[in-house]
Structures are given as C-alpha cells and as structure tokens.
Specification:
Strand 1 and strand 2 form a beta hairpin. The protein is elongated. It contains 5 helices and 12 strands.
Length: 236
C-alpha cells in the first residue's frame, strides 16, 4: 500500500471517529440551541416552536447526522400573530373608563389563555372583547371617539402582516370568561337590539346618521337571546 493510500485511509478512519463522537454531537446540539435561544431573546422568534432533526419531529439535536444532517426550528406564526393582534385591539380601543380596552380576552380552543408563547400551532385562537356593548362598538351602533370595526381592522392588518395565517371576523357565542364587572359570559339581551342609524364616514372621520333608529327584527337580537360577540379567529 502506498504512503498516499495509507494517509487517505487514516484520515477517513479519523473522520469517522470524530463524526461518531458523542462529545462532538453534544457540541453541535448546544450550538443549535444557542442560536435558537439567541433569536428568541432578541425578539426575532417566539418561544413556541417545533423541532425537526433530520426530518423527524421532536427529535433530539444530539441525534443529528453530522454529514449533511439538519436541525430545523419551526416557530409558531400563530403565537406571534395572536400577541400582535391582541396588542393592536387594545391600542385601537376607545378609552374613557378603560373598561373596554381592558376587556380583551385571548382564548385557545375555547379556553381563556394566559401564556401566549405556548399556543399550539394547530390551535384555534379567539380574540374577543367581552363587554356587553362590544357588538355595538364593532358595528357602529354606539358613537365612540375612534372608528368602529376594530376587530375587522385588526383582521385586515393581520392578513397583511402574517402570510400563511387565516384570519376571520365572526360573531360567536361566548362562555367561560367574565366581563369588567365580573359577570360571566354570555350576556343575555334584556331588550331587542336597536339599529342606531349611525355610520362612520372615513373621508371626514366623523359620524353621520343614515336613517332613523329602529328596533331590529333579527331573531338573534331579541330580548332573551345571548349576545354574539365580534371575534377575531386565527388559525395557522
């Protein structure tokens, strides 16, 4: 065997020893986790993510192949969008007593949620204001100091900002939350709803009356019916 062949064989053997070294696997794994954590700390990525090692979901970084393997962290767009949308709803809210602004609730799969970062990627997120007059503010039935349609405006903004995310405004029954007075949802209508006739003019940024007020004939707006809350629904 020539010297060149002997050297090449020795290099190959040494490389195999290094590539199979547990210490090197641990070093690479820690480097991957450090890069991930740095991105989270800088606010470039949320804390919710899935790990794929060589294509295997929830694999351990230590098991990655060192000769062309991959470690992928799939961060949750849903968590990012939920946090941002909740903040936007609060920012766009009218402030007089502060009750409306403080009454936005985030729900995940129908349950009031406290930790935004832990939202599962396959969850359904609701962002809803639980005050009894939230529908009036959304539809323009109550004259306020800001434009109506807060949920719809945030929905459009979410669609522009977060591609690959589905955002809907739906009027939904609500339970499992409490309004600013401590009363449980849903709110039960005490009398038939009134169509106020007010409309917001985007050009003049002012209110105008389109028609006289009248009692709504809609069945879901009659006394004894539960309020259907304007809800921003997010899915990934």
């Amino acid at each position: 065997m020539s010297f060149e062949e002997t050297l090449r064989r020795q290099i190959t053997l040494n490389t195999r020893d290094v590539l199979s070294s547990p210490a090197l696997h641990a070093l690479v794994a820690q480097e991957c986790r450090d890069l991930r954590d740095q991105a989270i700390a800088r606010g470039q990525a949320p804390k919710a993510y899935r790990t794929y090692v060589d294509g295997k979901r929830n694999g351990r970084e230590e098991n990655v192949r060192l000769d062309g393997g991959t470690v992928i962290y799939q961060f949750s767009i849903l968590s990012q969008a939920a946090y941002w949308a909740l903040s936007e709803c609060q920012k766009r809210s009218p402030v007089q007593s502060g009750n409306y602004r403080s009454s936005w609730v985030l729900m995940v799969n129908g349950v009031v949620w406290q930790g935004l970062d832990a939202i599962p990627q396959d969850a359904t997120v609701w962002i809803v204001n639980v005050t009894p007059y939230s529908r009036k503010i959304e539809t323009g039935g109550m004259r306020i100091r800001v434009p109506p349609g807060i949920v719809e405006a945030v929905r459009l903004a979410v669609m522009r900002r977060f591609s690959g995310l589905k955002a809907q405004r739906l009027y939904l029954p609500m339970s499992g939350a409490r309004d600013h007075r401590g009363n449980p949802t849903p709110y039960i209508l005490r009398q038939a709803g009134i169509a106020s006739g007010f409309s917001w003019n985007k050009d003049t940024k002012s209110w105008r009356r389109k028609h006289a007020a009248y009692v709504s004939p809609r069945m879901d707006r009659q006394a004894g019916e539960q309020l259907l809350y304007p809800t921003l629904v997010l899915t990934q």
